[in-house]
Specification:
single chain, about 160 residues, alpha+beta, Nuclear Transport Factor 2, Chain: A, 3 helices
Amino acid sequence: MDEEELRARLQLLEDERAILAVLHAYGHAIDYGDEERYLDLWTDDAAFDARGRVQGDVARVVQGREALADFAAHFARPPQGWHKHLVIEPLIEVEGDAASATSYFAVLRDEGDQPVLWVFGRYRDTLVRCPDGRWRFSLRIAEVESVDKRYPSLAFVH
């Protein structure tokens, strides 16, 4: 293996690791109300698109920095609400300064001092390397596959 191939392999590993950090930071930021960190995960024109099980059934689209800030500001956080966004088995593909990631997700929440699986599905993410060298979401699609309907406060998933 020559030096150029080695550099390319190392860059790919670094990119995948940085993208994985973005996927993980999302849950930590939204679950604990770290709005500044949450917003820093997105490009200025990014969109969050939550969809139901039926393809094309869009429950909510939030687009742009201002809308994403408002979205994060109105999501419950401790001590008003305890929940955990989990990203599971991410598959990441990098091509230059663009990447896609497909992951399962599950959201756990506290209901009356009982842990409950609130919702699960799949994230389909598009990320870009920004001018500062950091990876950010340009699009996050949450395909909701099942929701515990006993808890009507979930109009859409984050």
